[in-house]
Design goal:
The protein has no helices and 22 strands. By secondary structure, it is mainly β. The N terminus is likely disordered.
């Protein structure tokens, strides 16, 4: 079986810099990380590398359980580009991941050790961490549809100076469905700046109207209900008792297409906890409806 194209392949590079006690000796390590391919017959991941002055070549082959590789063969001032493929047990190889390039430069005042994107409530949420900071004014978050021309979509204030791990987060609420590229522009207090590596992600739209079974189920005191909308519409998510009487409306508003989730804490619309038993939860949008049961435990 031929490996399929790497599924939702979020490819990122994390720069790890080490400076030895002798200030004349500098080394740099580039960490390449990726999301694991969901195909169950993947055997290896193959890492390919090239420079602006040389051809692309395979530099490593790692186990299917690995999601990162450290490249120690780095020369300061050189630009490197990386791609990854998956290889199955029959020796078939997937398509290449997106290519990501990085300039191996001198250490910057801010040491970025992770940068990735997650999908939360149909939004792109970017998260990153720094191991240390010196005079860090903040981060511009930049987005592109082509990985070439970027626009600034937000700003997060930096800690300033720190020697401990700092965590940051930004939600891009205006990203439309489709493929997006993100990078961080780190700005110092003196106005100087540097860019992070570029990460790619794809914001997808559901293919069908769906109401998922709540979890946990049975539950007490709280459960989560997820649903998917393939188109915009007025959404109503309602909890009924077993006799068909309305207990509470968890959602009653217009929403764009996307994936959503909502929590129910077992209370009715008056804020009073309901009794144990079987309840019905129903989702309505435009001309579509879905119904499922849930169980409230004592």
């Amino acid at each position: 079986m031929m490996c399929q194209k790497l599924h939702r392949f979020y490819f990122s590079i994390i720069i790890l810099v080490t400076i030895f006690s002798n200030s004349e000796i500098k080394s740099q390590t580039i960490k390449i990380s990726w999301n694991l391919n969901p195909e169950n017959d993947v055997k290896y991941y193959c890492i390919f590398k090239k420079t602006t002055s040389g051809p692309e070549s395979e530099i490593a082959k790692v186990s299917s359980t690995d999601s990162s590789y450290l490249d120690h063969d780095i020369v300061l001032g050189q630009t490197y580009a990386y791609r990854v493929t998956a290889e199955d047990t029959a020796g078939n190889e997937s398509e290449f991941s997106d290519e990501v390039s990085i300039l191996a430069g001198d250490p910057t005042p801010v040491e970025l050790v992770s940068f990735h994107v997650e999908f939360i409530q149909n939004k792109c949420v970017l998260k990153w961490e720094t191991a240390s900071e010196s005079n860090n004014y903040g981060f511009e978050i930049q987005r592109s549809e082509s990985s070439i021309q970027f626009i600034t979509v937000g700003f997060v204030r930096g800690t300033g100076t720190a020697t401990t791990l700092q965590r940051y987060q930004f939600t891009d609420r205006d990203a439309p469905p489709g493929k997006h590229y993100y990078r961080l522009k780190q700005i110092d207090t003196d106005g100087s700046f540097s860019y992070s590596s570029i990460i790619a992600t794809e914001l997808t739209v559901p293919q069908k109207f769906e109401l998922y079974q709540n979890y946990p189920n049975p539950f007490n005191p709280e459960t989560t209900i997820k649903y998917a909308l393939p188109e915009n519409g007025h959404v109503r998510l309602i909890i009924y008792d077993i006799l068909g009487r309305e207990v509470i409306r968890l959602v009653d508003e217009c929403k764009p297409a996307g994936f959503y989730e909502v929590k129910w804490d077992g209370r009715n619309r008056e804020g009073i906890g309901v009794g144990a038993g079987v309840y019905i939860f129903s989702l309505f949008c435009n001309e579509s409806a879905r119904i499922k049961k849930l169980i409230m435990e004592k």
